[in-house]
Amino acid sequence: MQSSPGRRPRTIRLEVVILRASLPLTAGTRIGPYEILSAIGAGGMGEVYRARDTKLGRQLALKVLPVDVSMDAGRRDRFELEARSASALNHPNIVTIYEIGRVDSTSYIAMELVSGRTLRDLLAEGALPIRRFLALAAQIADGLARAHEAGIVHRDLKPENVMVTRDGAAKILDFGLAKLVAAAGSDISERATVASQTRPGLVLGTVGYMSPEQASGKPVDWRSDQFSLGAMLYEMATARRPFSRSTGAETLAAVIRDEPEPLQSVVPQLPIALRWVIERCLAKDPEERYASTRDLARDLAHLCDHVSDASQGLSAVTPPPRTRRYAGWALAAGCLVAAAAAAAAFAILGSRHEPVASPVRFAVPTPPGTTYAPSEVSRGFSISPDGTRVVIEAFSKRRRHLYLRRLDSEEAVALEGSLDATSHFWSPDGRFLAFFADGKLKKIPATGGRPQDLC
């Protein structure tokens, strides 16, 4: 832009205004009823300060949208959407919103002040010990499940947006990129009428943690958050980011096209069941992730209850606790222990009269298109007491199924209702097969058919 001699270009004057508007607030500044005490941090959606509520006399966190950003109607709307979304959630693992307000041209959110460190700070020290890993993972997933049940997608889940308190509680922060979607179970036709603050093709999120569909600018739902959580879990287990590349563009391309280095080669001591959970979350196709984030939270809570201390090895698994929630597991454990004891007694008594038989090795091929998938509490297959049938645990499209096959046939049939089954065992007479799926203990005839819920 040309200017006459002696006159300063208008562009320079505009830059000065923006710079002054972006200066952080100083201690003692008042915004409504809140007095600024000190700065905490800043992000793309605002600056966060420690503040004092002069009416109630308590300290809190005050998130302020900078003046220059507040002039952008789109960003201001997303900022206010954050408050409305998060304030509707009441969960111990989600930061509590006290108030949303506006003073002159400044918008703010008053929220719970969380004392502790971000998950990013913890990861700077390396991979987390297995017990701490699972405790935090289960809490994050539980809070995320609550948001998804309310029809809210975070869209920017990353270690910087998770605070860990001194007593080990995880708190999800910053729903600034949240997008309201229809709550689970609503009709598809209703979803198109839900107000959206994003445009098709617009990429919002953080490189390296966004899902492939998010990185491609496609519509997202709760399964996008599952992918982001999977990326976080991968980093918590390995101390490395799953899709990190030298540039942001290359990282986005890796998120869309590449698979991360297999966990089995990076941390071979990681429990198999946990490895499957992470890999399922990181599936490129949203259909291959969890159908419900509540199921994901249950899986992580189950692992948290069952994995022993690191002193026994990361892959060690303890017996299930005797709680009502896992009463079925306790029952199964008792049945398996009793069966093992009976088999041992039979072997000891029988050895007095009969020679011990030599072991027989045989191969049972998995059904076409599947991979063998033993669980943490089973060896992956079992033969019926009469020796005529075999049940195989196998993965198909990252989902576990039970397959029933007669030993005199090469055809294996997927058992109805066995999706994501975690263990199985035969009845003593071999007429029925029992297994755990959908949080229930079920039984099904050995010849196949519809399963019956036992408890």
Mean pLDDT: 76
| Percent helix range | 25-40%
DSSP E strands, number = 20
- Rg over CA atoms: 27 Å
Largest sheet, strands/sense/barrel = 6 strands, antiparallel
Biggest sheet, spatial arrangement of strands? 1-2-3-4-6-5
Q: Please count the helical segments.
A: 13
Estimate what percentage of residues fall within beta strands. 15-25%
Instruction: Tell the overall outline.
Output: elongated
Amino-to-carboxy terminus distance: 77 Å
Main structural class: alpha+beta
Low-confidence stretches: 10-22, 182-202, 309-357
Q: Could you describe the 3D structure shown?
A:
There is one protein chain. The chain is an alpha+beta fold and 455 residues long. It has 13 helices and 20 strands. The protein has a six-stranded antiparallel β-sheet with strand order 1-2-3-4-6-5. Strands 12, 13, 14, 15 and 16 form a five-stranded antiparallel β-sheet that branches. A four-stranded antiparallel β-sheet has the order 17-18-19-20, covered by helices on one side. A hairpin with a 5-residue loop joins strand 17 and strand 18. Helix 5 runs antiparallel to helix 8 and helix 5 packs antiparallel against helix 12.
What is the gist of this entry?
The protein is of the alpha+beta class. It has helices at about 10-20, 65-70, 75-85, 120-125, 130-150, 190, 210-215, 220-240, 250-255, 265, 270-280, 295-305, 325-350; strands spanning about 30, 35-45, 45-55, 60-65, 95-105, 105-110, 115-120, 150-155, 160-165, 170, 180, 370, 380-385, 390-395, 400-405, 410-415, 425, 430-435, 440-445, 450-455. The model is unreliable at about 10-20, about 180-200 and about 310-355 (pLDDT under 50).
